[in-house]
Amino acid sequence: MAGATSPTPCVFCQIARNSTSTPLLHSDEKVVAFQDIKPAAYRHYLVISVDHIPTVRDLQRRAEDYSLVRHMLNVGQELLQQDAPQSNQYRFGFHQPPLNSVNHLHLHCLASPFIPRWKHVKYLSLGPLGGFIEAEKLLEKIKPLSSTSS
Questions:
Q1: Which residues of 20-33 are buried (b: 16+ CB within 10 A; e: fewer)?
Q2: Residues sharing a CB contact under 8 Å with residue 75, sequence separation 6 or more, in sequence order
Q3: What keywords appear on the UniProt entry (predicted)?
Q4: Domains of the chain, earliest start first
Q5: How confident is the prediction for the chain on average, in pLDDT?
């Protein structure tokens, strides 16, 4: 049956459907945002897609994928600017497999400082090996080819 759910539903799908006690910081038809349960920084929010998209590797050079990631970034930026305006650095990005902890597309939105300081290591790019990909770099990667004029 199409659209059938697995016996153990994705925890982020449950949050997106508001079927948990997780307080939402933002909710619309495309994304929801909430605090990370294991914050690595002064402010650490997650913006997740409402639709189940497993990882950044499932995104393609399509207008809808580009629009979704751009929207996720905009929501994250607005939240951090509102809640941590005094922070001297913001980071926005995605962990790439095999280093992602939950197989559901989620943007990490971080306002420094990292707590403890060494936690920044978890949010470094490992170049061709993957690691953490900044949201802007992902947007460059998935920008639709037809959108070359700016």
A1: eebeebeeeebbbb
A2: 26, 28, 31, 33, 47
A3: Hydrolase, Nucleotide-binding
A4: 25-147 (3.30.428.10)
A5: 88
Report pLDDT for 6: 47
Q: What is the DSSP track for the chain?
A: -TTPPPSS--HHHHHHTT-SSPPPSEE-SSEEEEE-SS--EEEEEEEEESS----GGG--S-HHHHHHHHHHHHHHHHHHHHH-TT-S-EEEEEE-TTS-SSSS-EEEEEEEEESSGGGGGGG-B-GGG-BEEEHHHHHHHH--GGG---
* Strands ordered across the beta sheet of 41-49: 26-27, 31-35, 41-49, 106-114, 90-95, 132-134
pTM over 0.85, yes/no: yes
Q: Which residues are catalytic?
A: 108
- pLDDT tens for 4-61 read 444 567 999 999 988 788 999 999 999 999 999 999 999 999 999 999 999 999 999 9
